[in-house]
């Protein structure tokens, strides 16, 4: 019976709450009550409500707060809505005039004892609104000016300090009851506050604080785009330098890492309560961390694209000899290299240039081949420059900090290739036994992705949007935005200056920039400048004689360096011998040392005798010193 009685009481309380909520919804803006009408039977300010005046008084006579309350800002279902400025000014004026035209006795009663002038609900509603409005303004200032997202404790402390002093003590206790309750009740109150005022739990976005001078320098650099301008000048100069009858053939080569086991793919995962096994993707740690390098090659000429080499480079552990034998015959254009390391280096780069020249065949003589590459340390070396010069391939480097927007492989190829490879790998894993993809199947999946995306693709638009072709007339919009170019500037004709071209290469790298930009070795440039100036006074025979003398001096210098290194090694060996003798002599007595000095072989060795004399002197053996002398 007691349980049923408790249940009935609970149902009655809930019904009463619903009735009161329905009454508030039907009358959201309570006008002047009968009690007030008795005190002031004729009020000229009937458009304004008592709650608006209470908000105006509790906020310290701030008409902006009362206007926000009249507009419904912060009420349930209204949020922090924005209103027209003209309507807001009119509402502010209406609130102020309502306060001015109200009877003086009624205003004094609201200021001194509001509970006698209006119901308890009106005073409580106005007090709560003033607290929440002040809390919202404080949070906004903290977010914008201080860069702080206040915590629960900070919000509760400021809300308690924002309760108006003119509020009666009874109302103050009711307003502060929720804020001084348990942390759970505080969180529930703050959740409703955030919902009503358009706030949320989130993190502030970190923005680096940059000085005005640094920002101006960065904007100046961004507006000018020195690196991009130098690169575009270099590309235009390389295209213009093509001989008559040999049209330019621009090829972009870049490497990317291909993982052994692709993880993190999004798909359908079963979450059924009757499932007996947990869904999972099993892989060894070596497969997850194992990568190979893919050297991709693309060109703007679709007819030449199938001829370009596509190289997969792996180390000896990833590509064993038996695997390479099982992969034969290889598809046309695909090459698999087994090296000590899967990363690119100078030797691998020279090997790729040789393979590129061999794959193009007669096109090296028929077309002017230009190879675009990333400005990485593994791509730049004197040996690579000389080897490319011998193979008939001109090198042009893209600035390292702008490869994501200037290199066609990065802008158009690799994202499509990685997506196709991941999809094919997932299909292959679904068909394999126990979901284990062997290394042979993995390499074949890469082949299929290369054939589908790279070899059959048309990359004309990629080269045009990156500014390689058509003199940057079809430059991509995102690239212009990054460079700060509202309109495409005019790229100067001719090669870039030395100081400007040096911005393309990594800093502190010692290299002859003009040799790369003009594609002429330094000796050739010197000879051409001497011929053009007309001051070449040496004959061919004299020049050859000087060349022979220089070579002889170089050989002599090499011999002297070898002799110096040998002498240094001999001195180190002798020092080690002396040290060993000193260590051994510490355990010898004077009689043993005399017998050692009388030995015929030791007596003939002057260095040993002198060393033993020094040892005897250090040990204080006078007789041995006499014998040594």
TrEMBL record:
Domain called DDE-1: residue spans: 340-429
Annotated keywords: Coiled coil
Domain of life (superkingdom): Eukaryota
Recorded coiled-coil stretches: 543-570
UniProt-recorded Gene Ontology molecular function terms: nucleic acid binding
Protein name: DDE-1 domain-containing protein
